[in-house]
Amino acid sequence: MSWFTKTFSSTMGRKIIMSITGLFLCSFLVVHLIGNLQLFYDDGGAAFNLYSYFMANNIVIRIMEIVLLLGFLFHIYDAIVLTRKNKAARPIEYAEVRPQENSTWSSRNMGLLGTVILVFLIIHLWNFFVPARFGGLEGVVIEGAEYENLYVRVVESFQIWWYVLIYVLAMVALAYHLIHGFQSGFQTLGLDHKKYTPFIQMFGYAFSVIVCLGFAIIPLYFFFLY
């Protein structure tokens, strides 16, 4: 297994892991957004609470949560290692640097964007995931059965202006992070060609904006219309 360890501990190997985990996390965003859209049903939160119950009690979903957590940890760890390696490789800056001429703002600030997203993720999990998985939510009766009322937690949380602000700013950071990361991931995996790279760029931009806008609309909807 020494070849495996050497390959994936190298700079290129870590970039491949970053790309694979990043694209995997993109698929999670789509599934998570589709689930969160249940919040817009005008049924007092019944659809969202049933969805939340299914996610919390389905064995396949619980296993995927572990895979997802490992994906996050690998992605974050490799990002830190690669950043340190890049700084160590060039400890002294060039006398004259114009990074804006050959790189985008998001590519130069992936560390900052990732940090903002990580801080938001910790707050978000503590506010929603922990109560949903380990108790602390009030109950609600749906079709004769009692479920935890995560919907009320969502509504109450999105009445707090600073939480809504953090959520929206995090989605802006995530959009910039994805815009660069989506194309970079395909390029690292060797899926880079003049024929389809423009489509990947366009699709990645559209994906990043639409998904993050979809998430950002949810807190704004509850804050201004509830």
TrEMBL record:
CDD domains in the record: SQR_TypeB_2_TM
Organism: Pontibacter diazotrophicus
NCBIfam families reported in the protein's UniProt record: sdhC_b558_fam
Regions that span the bilayer: 16-39, 59-80, 110-129, 160-179, 199-224
Keywords: Membrane, Transmembrane, Transmembrane helix
Protein name: Succinate dehydrogenase
Keyword Membrane: yes
Taxonomic path: Bacteria, Pseudomonadati, Bacteroidota, Cytophagia, Cytophagales
InterPro entries: Cytochrome_b-558 (IPR011138), SQR/QFR_C/D (IPR034804)
GO cellular component, one term: membrane
